[in-house]
Specification:
The complex is a heterodimer of chains A (101) and B (681). By secondary structure, chain A is mainly α. Chain A has one domain: Helix Hairpins. Chain A has helices at residues 3-24, 28-52, 57-88. Chain B is mostly helical. Helices cover 74% and strands 3% of the residues of chain B. In chain B, a hairpin with a 2-residue loop joins strand 1 and strand 2. In chain B, 48% of the residues are buried. The chains are: A mainly alpha (101), B mainly alpha (681). At the A-B interface, helix 1 of A face helix 26 of B.
């Protein structure tokens, strides 16, 4: 098992944890945290590929972009959650089911 | 002159349209609209007439044609032709029409459909002017049908009366018979020469476009239209019945103008007729003249006497054209228009007075038109009597009157024809015989109406002269029956030489290799026959008058006894030679029977078995297709099946739609995993 695989394994675990959080958490903020984990797992992959996969500086720059994007995403997502709260009086995503006909 | 032509059509047509749509709402019910329109055309006609007299040129002619439409190579042209004949005809129509309009103001005063009456009169004037102005057979035919239509509308004007409604239908149908012939004739000339214009047809025929036998047939077909319109034997039956219309209409349409249209057409088409065709035309005219005159002798209805007299005089004109006395025929048409219109309007005045007298006495059963109910009216209706007497003199052919000159010219024509062709000796006999009878029945009419004792004194006491709107036209028309009107600038009561004969000259035939004498030779012949014809016609006219005086004024012989002694001829004449009955038995009833038989076959056999059977089969088939196939199979199984299955799957699948985003995400995850597994395999 070489070094790259270790990083990828860490990224995969991080991704799975994030996905699990997104799917199972009832609290909207916790769902967002899961999303952050997914994003960061991608960052780990980018940096790993930058170091071992020949992606060089591009990987680093992509990771930086993702961090900035995550910040922006968090701002927008938190605004959505505040609206959710205003609308339903809760941040529990299970109660927001008006997509059901 | 050409610039005037459109007004003769536009003004009466506009008056017709205004009367039909707005007549009832106009002041005085709009009679002034029609009178103004016709009055203006009269002024124009007089202006054209004066121009013609100043020009004094027999060959004066203005013609303008334009393309009406074209179909590929076929170009149909119509247009206007104005020559001396046109001008005289326009004046005759405008004058009689104008006077009749004026007369109708009094005659139709309280009629509920007063405005419509004037509208129809204007429609007639429009159509008649159209016939006169046309320079082609196509538009003549169209206007020909239009005068037929206005005649139909006016005969049946009092359509509440069954007799009037039937008479209008009869007139229309009988005319149709002739018109079909005319249409065939027009088409024969059109196919042969490729044009409807007179000039083209004449040129084409002169160049031999039609072989001679076909030319004879085509000419006679064209003449069939004239037989219908001018009420010649055997299609004369409609005209006496047409007297059901208002009397001014009888004067305008059924005496002076429309019935003369047939003569006018024959006159215009004269150059096309082969000698054989002309012989047929002459015999048709001659037979009509004597035949109708015989009937007129025994009729008791004042208008019927005049109607048969009109038929007889039209026969004269046709006979004149047939024998080549072309100018004489047209001359008689013109003079006859004036004095026959006068006679009809006078009879209208008499009927009007009788009607009012009966009305006052509360008598609704007696016939105001029956001459046996009249008598002694001379003292009560002086103007009517005098004008009617003058017109009667003219019709009877007494010197110093217009009718003497024109009738004499016709008789001279037939006499000259018979001297050249002794085998046709019957024609002058018909002519002179009719002249004798004409004088007799006209004076019989005068004596029965105005002389003697009335059937009832109280009726006579209530007779009054008609109003001035009615008597003025009488005076004008009676004045126009004096010879001098037609012979100026020459004043010779025994010669027709004058502006008329100077301006209307005979045309030569265009028939190739014709053996007929030329126009000049005919004129020469007539000139030679003039003196004997005049002497004989004077003798017969005065004999007729004398007979009438002896029988009806002096009462030397009783008319009833005479009728008994001559039972067979009397019955034949009184019953109009049973022509109507013969038509009923041999034409109309068989037609009705045939129609009924065909109708029976159509209804009972064809309709019941074939059509209904077809219907039943269709019904069964459609029931099978509709109920079994469409409803049971297609609708129930297939169409409903699609809906049902959709509903089933919808119901089954709706449970995965939880509305929870996280559930959806699980499905997405599952999907991705499946894709990965498939990829890995």
């Amino acid at each position: 098992m070489n070094d790259l695989n270790i990083y990828l394994t860490v990224g995969a675990i991080l991704f799975s944890l994030g996905l699990y959080g997104v799917i199972t958490r009832r609290n909207g903020v916790a769902v967002l945290m899961g999303v952050e984990l997914i994003l960061n797992s991608a960052n780990v992959n980018f940096v790993a590929f930058a170091r071992f996969g020949g992606m060089n500086l591009s990987g680093h720059i992509f990771a930086m972009f993702v961090i900035i994007l995550a910040a922006a995403e968090a701002a927008v997502a938190l605004a959505i959650i505040i609206n959710l709260y205003n609308k339903f009086g809760t941040v529990n995503v299970d109660d927001a089911r008006s997509l059901k006909q | 002159m050409m610039t005037f032509a459109p007004y003769f059509l536009i003004l009466p047509l506009a008056a017709f349209a205004i009367q039909i749509f707005f007549g009832k709402r106009l002041p005085r019910k709009g009679d002034w609209v029609s009178i103004t329109a016709v009055g203006t055309t009269l002024c124009l006609a007089i202006a054209m007439f004066v121009m013609m007299l100043f020009l004094y040129e027999p060959g004066a002619k203005a013609e303008q044609s334009f393309e009406w439409f074209n179909l590929g190579e076929l170009s149909v042209k119509i247009g206007v032709l104005i020559d001396n004949v046109t001008v005289i005809m326009l004046l005759v129509v405008a004058l009689v029409s104008g006077l009749v309009h004026l007369y109708s103001v009094g005659y139709m005063k309280d009629d509920p459909r007063y405005s419509r009456y004037f509208g129809y009169l204007s429609l007639f004037t429009f159509s008649m002017n159209g016939i006169i102005l046309s320079n082609n057979l196509l538009s003549i035919y169209m206007f020909w049908e239009l005068v037929g239509l206005s005649s139909y509308l006016l005969i049946g004007f009092w359509f509440e009366k069954d007799s009037a409604a039937n008479a209008s239908k009869k007139a229309f149908l009988v005319n149709r018979v002739g018109d079909i012939g005319m249409f065939i004739g027009i088409m024969l000339f059109f196919t042969a020469t490729g044009s409807f214009l007179f000039s083209d047809i004449f040129a084409g025929v002169a160049a031999g476009a039609l072989p001679l036998p076909l030319l004879t047939v085509a000419g006679l077909c064209l003449f069939a239209g004239a037989i219908g319109k001018s009420a010649q034997v055997p299609l004369h039956v409609w005209l006496p019945d047409a007297m059901e219309g208002p009397t001014p209409v009888s004067a305008l349409i059924h005496a002076a103008t429309m019935v003369a249209a047939g003569v006018y057409l024959t006159f215009r088409m004269f150059p096309l007729f082969t000698p054989e065709a002309l012989t047929v035309i002459a015999y048709v005219g001659g037979v009509t003249a004597i035949f109708a005159a015989i009937i007129a002798v025994t009729q008791n209805d004042i208008k019927r006497v005049l109607a048969y007299s009109t038929v007889s005089q039209l026969g004269y004109m046709v006979m004149a054209i047939g024998t080549g006395a072309y100018v004489a025929g047209f001359f008689h048409l013109t003079t006859h228009a004036a004095f026959k219109a006068a006679l009809f309007l006078c009879s209208g005045s008499v009927i009007h007075a009788m009607h009012h007298a009966y009305h006052k006495l509360g008598d609704h059963d007696s016939d105001p038109q029956d001459m046996r109910n009249m008598g002694g009216m001379k003292s009560k209706m002086k103007i009517t009597f005098l004008t009617m007497f003058m017109a009667t003199l003219a019709l009877s052919g007494v010197p110093f009157m217009s009718g003497f000159l024109s009738k004499d010219a016709i008789l001279a024509g037939t006499l000259s024809f018979a001297t050249h062709h002794p085998e046709h000796f019957l024609l002058p006999l018909f002519g002179f015989g009719a002249a004798l009878l004409t004088a007799f029945y006209m004076f019989r009419l005068i004596f029965m109406t105005f002389y003697g004792k009335p059937a009832k004194q109280e009726v006579l006491d209530n007779i009054h002269e008609s109003p001035a709107t009615m008597t003025t036209p009488l005076i004008v028309l009676a004045t126009l029956s004096i010879f001098i009107v037609y012979t100026l600038p020459y004043i010779n009561p025994f010669s027709d030489h004058g502006w008329f004969t100077d301006l209307i000259v005979a045309t030569n035939s265009v028939v190739p290799q014709h053996v007929n004498p030329s126009a000049h030779e005919i004129a020469e012949g007539i000139h030679h026959a003039h003196l004997p014809a005049m002497i004989i016609s004077l003798i017969v006219a005065f004999t007729g008058i004398a007979l009438a005086v002896v029988i009806y004024l002096k009462k030397k012989f009783s008319a009833e006894k005479l009728a008994k002694n001559l039972a067979l001829p009397y019955k034949l004449s009184f019953n109009k030679f049973f022509v109507d009955e013969i038509y009923d038995r041999f034409l109309i009833n068989p037609t009705i029977k045939l129609a009924k038989a065909v109708g029976f076959f159509d209804w009972e056999i064809y309709d019941k078995y074939f059509i209904n059977g077809f219907g039943r089969i269709t019904e069964r088939l459609s029931r099978f297709i509709g109920i079994t196939m469409d409803y049971d199979v297609l609708d129930q199984q297939i169409v409903d099946g699609v809906g049902k299955s959709t509903r089933f799957f919808g119901g089954a699948l709706k449970f995965i739609q939880t509305g929870k985003i996280q559930n959806y995400l699980v499905w997405v995850l599952g999907g991705i995993i499946i894709i990965f597994i498939i990829q890995a395999m």
